[in-house]
Design goal:
mainly beta
Length: 124
């Protein structure tokens, strides 16, 4: 059974940092990619970052490039999202997700399994 669990969210001041974790079960990173999405109140869920299962290649939304870094630890079945220089507009619920066949990394409809989400609030 596929399961994903996010953790690491919280309240942080603008300019601060957080590291989110996505622990998963029921599949291997060798064959499946992981995407991070976020959803702010009243907005659509949007892609933030992605790491490929096959070769570890990464992608980022323009809004987070240079500030966020995605990484993985296959031995721990965990994918991380290091978030630096956080801004109030980064405030959202952050989700990790995976799917059997993901052609376009930032299309939420291509993901089959989702975690429950973790709240990130950037405020002074």
């Amino acid at each position: 059974q596929v399961q994903l669990v996010e953790s690491g969210g919280g309240l942080v001041q603008p300019g601060g940092s957080l590291r989110l974790s996505c622990g998963f079960f029921g599949f291997s990173l060798d064959y499946h990619a992981i995407g991070w999405f976020r959803q702010a109140p009243g907005k659509e869920r949007e892609g933030v970052s992605y790491i490929s299962g096959s070769d570890g290649s990464t992608y980022y939304a323009d809004s987070v490039k240079g500030r966020f870094t995605i990484s993985r630890d296959n031995a721990k079945n965990t994918v991380y999202l290091q978030m630096n220089s956080l801004k109030p507009e980064d405030t959202a619920v952050y989700y990790c997700a995976t799917g059997a066949l993901i052609r376009t990394w930032d299309l939420k409809y291509e993901y089959d399994y989702w975690g429950q989400g973790t709240q990130v609030t950037v405020s002074s």
